[in-house]
């Protein structure tokens, strides 16, 4: 149990997302927050500047695929199409930012876990990060391999009349929430060398809380300005959730 909450009982994914906003301001963490923050500002800031200049064209192209007999539903289909575009690009650019910043994201999760538990993490240092870099990048590739086939199937849904314009954006939102939960929970799990399959199995057993966490990350990632700080917030929130809900299942008590 973290020393930041009275109890982990009945705490949901939204709680841990909110907790992440408080944790990034902790004095000992600020220097570990700045590098993921800079990566997010550069990549997501540039991506969303471009996306918001192009989104009208993309959505109009999608609306042209709507059958004439469904045009009367345009007031529903148009905002769903906007959400669809935002979700696709949000996950793509978030993944890119996470790949680039992954060594520093893992370091932030490690330092925060050490502060919460009082158990000192291994003193990796810069050389330790460089030595671990191939394994970290391989882990990011594993997540992409998990994501791509599912994303392709969901993209194909969009070309099914009616279903594509109404159900597909909702499915994308739920799938995106699950992928955000996997993306950010994976940092504390990977710090303990827990295999991806074991991490995924653990999250599935607590799927609703992880979907809540991922939904919150998804929504804030689509909001300009706020999305620039979402990476360290999500890492801190997922690390607190790891300590409260999953750490005891995968580590020996009192040991890193």
TrEMBL record:
GO molecular function: high-affinity sulfate:proton symporter activity
Keywords on record: Amino-acid biosynthesis, Cell inner membrane, Cell membrane, Cysteine biosynthesis, Membrane, Sulfate transport, Transmembrane, Transmembrane helix, Transport
Main location per the UniProt record: membrane
Highest rank taxon of the organism: Bacteria
Topology in the lipid bilayer: Multi-pass membrane protein
Pfam families: EI24
Listed GO biological process terms: cysteine biosynthetic process; sulfate assimilation
InterPro entries in UniProt: CysZ-like (IPR050480), CysZ/EI24 (IPR059112), Sulfate_CysZ (IPR022985)
Chain's role: High affinity, high specificity proton-dependent sulfate transporter, which mediates sulfate uptake. Provides the sulfur source for the cysteine synthesis pathway.
NCBIfam families with a match to the protein in the record: PRK04949.1 (NF003433)
Protein name: Sulfate transporter CysZ
Organism: Proteus myxofaciens ATCC 19692
